[in-house]
Amino acid sequence: MKRYIILFTILPLLLLNYFMYKNITKNISSVFIDESVIISQTLDETSSSIFRLLEINEQLYIEDRMQIVYSFSINALLNAYSRADLMIRFDIDDIVIFHNNNEIIKSVKNYNINYSIVKSDSVFMNKGCLIIVRNYSSYRVFFIFRMSNITSERDTLNFRSFLKKIRDKTSIKYFILQDEKGIIAATGNISKISTIESDTFLKKSLLDNEFHHRFIVFNGSQSLEVTKRVEHNIEEIYLMRICYDTKDYFVSIRKVNIVFLISSFLIVIIICLLYLIIIGSGKLKKIEYENVFNKEIIINLFNNINSPVIIFNDKLNIILRNYKADNILQGLGENRLKNIIKEISNKKEYKINNRIFDILLSDIIIKEENKRYKLAMFIDQTDQLKIRALEEELRSNKQMEAFVSEFAHQVKNPLNAISMSIQRIVQKNEIDKNLIKIIDDEIVILNSKVSNFLLNIRNKRKVSCINDIIADVCKLYSTEIAENNIILTCYLSDNPLYSRIERDELSDAIKNLIKNAIEALSNCIKKEKKLDIKLTEKGKHAEITVTDNGIAIDENKIGHIFDKFYSSKENGTGIGLYTVKRVIESYGGNIDVKITDSGLKLFIIRLNLVI
Known about the structure:
The chain is of the alpha+beta class. It has 16 helices and 22 strands. The protein folds into 5 domains: 2-56 and 158-251, 2-Layer Sandwich (Beta-Lactamase); 70-152, Beta-Lactamase (2-Layer Sandwich), CATH 3.30.450; 295-378, Beta-Lactamase; 381-452, Helix Hairpins (Orthogonal Bundle), CATH 1.10.287; 461-608, 2-Layer Sandwich (Heat Shock Protein 90). Helix 1 (2-69) packs antiparallel against helix 7 (247-281).
């Protein structure tokens, strides 16, 4: 155990030291890379300026050559000695003279250029050459300058000297401007530089305008290469590659590594020394027990425990007990108590002297004496069990109260239907057979509800046809719906759908939804008041939808409409929708309400089908 304490002490400290080491090395790398990127940004901005200067210089070169060319006379050009002198003085690579019949009169070199297509004065670049065309009265002359001559003019910008100064004043090993064809400009030993085509990292660097970096081995030493895409113009895209010496960076990393190793070693040494000091000076003295169970001490200790406690030896003979254990022995006897301790693994709750006890059994092993004892503690659960029974009875009474309240609400609907029918008979002052039929049907339903009340108590459930239930409810409310100028649409599935639910309970749930819809429609002002009732089969479920376009439900209240005693009506009881939800869920179904964008209310009941 002591070895584990050392291990659990050293490991967190070493982990903390390691995380500090990783954080420091990460910061050093970040600083070095950031500094290199800042230098690269400066060089990137400088290279853009150089390209602009080169472009201006190139344009000046062309304009200068055009002025020189237009100063030549045709006679000087036709004279061989004069033409050679002009070519040497003005770095002209070749002068090609055509007669008007396209016959070449003079040419020194063959550039394989189609001269015949150029008719007028012009300036153009072709195959690495600058070509200036001038027309004379009977001749057309092509002055050809090689790009090497133009490049020599670039040298006036001292580009190579500029790159060399950059390398000498910084830790840069090389600076390269490179495209997919090859190197445009460079300084440093670049004999082993990779091409863009052969290097995946360089290909990716050309895809965006961000700085990229990687550690490489250059000339046998670790280096950092920073790359960035450089756009001279739309057609000319280069890759700037800058290699930095990482000597100082790796010296710093090595110093951090050494500090990490030394600190880790010191942590281990210090913890081990502390352990030796603590163990050496504060080592626990072993207590030589003359008697493991010193009865005077143990009895005083046990007598302060509120529960009966008994200690047995390996033969289950009682060797020690507190005074509260006397009642246990008197009620059971020692032999019966031994049998209980033997069978304790199968049963833990026992009735002793009209009290219920839980017995907690624990083994006590004395290694020095190679002895085993059993400690039994008797926890009196009688009062706790009585409290639980009272709580269960109270919960059952509340459930019965809710059930009776719901039953009363269910009985209210048939009574209302009977009352309404009787009122219509009195108003018409004549006997209407349809109304008499409704009264008779509702009396049958009322009688059925009383029977179902008893059946529900016994948890008996029947299989009912949902199609028939909905059809009967629609027929019942047809007169009231017509009187309120409501358009009723009742769609039932082609195949009868059956669910394990009491007919009257589902009927009452649908009646409740239709009754609420009629009230919402009768209180609204609309040209067309619509009430749609739909029954469809959805896999293993039947789905009943009751939809109306009456007064909408407030979105802030929609989450509470199924709460018990919650009602938005002035004289509402808050029992109706709560009862509908409880009944549907008691049969394994569910009910939901939705408000469409057009303001329609949808109550959706889903019930399990009996297949």
